[in-house]
Amino acid sequence: MTFMNPDRAAVIRQLVNPRSVAVIGASADFSKVNGRPLKHLIDKGYGGEILPVNPKYREIAGLACYPDIASLPRAADLAIIALPAALVCDCIRQLGRKGIRAAVIFSSGFGEMGPDGKALEQELADTAKAARVILLGPNCLGFINAFENVYATFSQYADGDTGAGPVAFVTQSGAFGTAIAALARRRGLGLGYFVNTGNQADLDFAELMMAVVEDPRVKVAAGYLEGISDGEALVKLAQKCRALGKPLILTKVGRMESGARAAASHTGALAVSDAVFDAVARQYGILRARNEEQMLDMMEVFCQARRAGGNGLGIATQSGGAGVMMADRAEEVGLAVPHLGTQTQAKLASVMPAFGAAGNPVDVTGQFVARPELLSESVVAMLDDPAIDVAIVWLQLMTGYVDALLKIFAEIRDHTEKPFLVCWVAAPEAAAKGLGALGIPVFSAGERAVEAAAALARYGQSERKADAGPAKSRLSPPVPKAPSGVQPTVEASALLAAAGIPMANVALAGDEDAAVALWRGNGGAVALKVESPDILHKSDMGGIILGVDSEAAIREGYRTLVSRAKENMPKARLSGILVQEMSQGHVELVVGVSRDPVFGMIVMVGLGGVLVEVLKDVTFRKAPFDRHEAALMLSELRMGAILDGVRGKPAVDRDEIADLLAKLSQWADAMAPRLLELDLNPVLVGKSGPRVVDCVMILNDAPPEASSR
């Protein structure tokens, strides 16, 4: 019998929400890995059909057990495979013949076991593709769909209460993912989905999350990553989550540099995997958590429906010191702690005790115990202030006043539409549970509450960004027919100038007379530079002479640079000497493009010129992007204040720099078939705008489809 290959997305949805489950290798011993899924499906009340398969049994727990896959009365929506690794490929072939299109593979002994295991895993992937079976795993814990009581797992997490909640959690780690799930349960955060991807021989993190996040019962997507192989899939997932209005929270470990490879350009040397991931996360609205506790904090704050309209934080405390500490942390994580308006201060003054503080932070003191309206009216007044977008209420202990405080917090919630968080240090258990029932996030430490508020603000900023997704480049530059490697400066500059990048005029002189003629044609002082495909960073070997403005100086400079090249790099191929117009600018930037193995073309901007690799004040974005995103890049530079003028230097036009970056990103996206690396360093910026005075462009071999265009 032949089967049409169904739509992959539909099969994935069928996998996570099956109407029938076959357990291949099922055991009557419910303590074993191959018995635990049966136990959970039965005990947790799965409403679909359960089909155990094992020739050793005629029935298990009252369920008919079938001797082999061919004997099943019908094709199940999902197969759980709990067999030795050597038997799995043949099992997949049998599933394909039966018409079962989705499988979860618990079995270990594949890619995690070294070269032989990797070969077996590749055979498994090829077998599944031929059989038209979609795989979760191998070497995975499986998954839980708590909404429908689907327990395709042997995880310890399934042993306890797994009540459905608004969070979909997908993890690449089984053991650590289980620990995170257990911590979420302890906090009262319900996981509607718990999915472990295992070795990802077929289905990967992004595809699985894409399927479960579409469930309308899911409000928050959270994931634990140990590596990413498909950056485009992650970007599409982020765009999907933003379109659905569901925050995507990720913890990614592995902050090692991918720059161990030799990098010819500054951009390539600085573009390390973790920095690029961070930048792409910001670009597409992904919220990155440093660790599992911060992930859970973010889950908690986003499980409540209210969102922050800006980054203004209001703080109300019964301790002035706690208020100062939280205000300090707020500034560090990008929140503003604004002055309250005149009307707000007047409202606060009318209810505050004389020894309280009506500023921001608002110190309500301990008097609210005797006068509950003091806390509720103060916080409501603060949240009514136009400059405040989210608030934190800090208190400690108050064991004897839990009921009264819960009533106050309920009143605050009902009298405002803005989000507010509670930081209750050493909170009684009844307080935490009561706030959870009210839908109010509660934290045990001030800095954690501030960081959760910052996540709300960042997500709000992401929602406000134009979200058509970065359009593909409108540019269609001709793919260069030049050979791979470092490109001649004149030709590279012409390509960039055609894309609207402001390049300093430059020409190549093959001898002294040609250099003199080019100088005369320029009509003013010029820079002389060595041109060689083997000398990428000219300043490192004295290959630049600036401000040359006479025939004698041109001739002497030409001879000097040729001599320096031969002395310092005798094997370098010398093409001649570049003659370039002098450019002015009191700010030096480095701009570049590198090809990231996961996310593709990445644009960098930074401050520092020749010191860029020392200062490392750089930021990245995935190409292409618009001027608004480019402006955000500039705002992330630690020394970005230099752009606005310091120590008597005038400000430069950020918009013109943003325009350069946006145009470069469009060009880089269009040039993706051939562009390997690009360094524009330095880019001088002055009153006339940015001007690129040096570039290193490296092309790779053109793919067949590119060379034929």
Automatic annotation (TrEMBL):
Record SUPFAM superfamilies: Glutathione synthetase ATP-binding domain-like, NAD(P)-binding Rossmann-fold domains, Succinyl-CoA synthetase domains
All residue ranges annotated as the CoA-binding domain in the record: 15-110
Swiss-Prot/TrEMBL keywords: ATP-binding, Ligase, Nucleotide-binding, Transferase, Tricarboxylic acid cycle
Region spans: Disordered: 465-484
GO biological process, one term: tricarboxylic acid cycle
Signal sequence interval, chain numbering: none
GO-annotated molecular function: acetate-CoA ligase (ADP-forming) activity; ATP binding; transferase activity
UniProt record similarity statement: In the N-terminal section; belongs to the acetate CoA ligase alpha subunit family.
PANTHER family per UniProt: 3-HYDROXYPROPIONATE--COA LIGASE [ADP-FORMING] (PTHR43334:SF1), ACETATE--COA LIGASE [ADP-FORMING] (PTHR43334)
Protein name: Acetyltransferase
